[in-house]
Amino acid sequence: MEIWFNPARELELLLHTTAGNTPGFGDQPFDPEIRPSDPRFGDYQANGILAHAKATRANPRALAATLVEALKKDGSLDDALISIEIAGPGFINFQLKPAFLDAWLTRYANVEAFRSECATLYAGRKIIVDYPSPNTAKQMHVGHLRPMVIGEAIARMLQFCGAKLVRDNHIGDWGTNFGILIFAIKHENAANSLDSDPTTALEILEQLYKKGSALAKDNPAMMEAARQELVNLQTGDPENTALWQRIVAISNAAFQQTYEQLGIRPDITLGESFYRDKVERVYTELHDCQLAEESDGALVVWHDEHPRFARNSERPQPFIVRKKDGSSNYASTDLATILYRTEHFQADECIYITDGRQQDHFQQLFLTAEKWFHATGRRLPSLRHVWFGTILGEDGRAIKTKSGDPVRLKTLLHEAATRATVIIDEKNPGLPEDERQHIAHTVGIAAIRYADLSQNRTLDYAFSWEKLLAFDGNTAPYLLYAVARIHSIFRKAAAGDAATPPAPLETTPEVALARKLTVFPSALVQACTELRPHFLCTYLYELAGAYSTFNNADKVLVDEPTVRARRLRLCARTVAVLSTGMRLLGIEPLERM
Ligand code: ARG
Question: Is the pTM of this model over 0.70?
Answer without folding.
Answer: yes
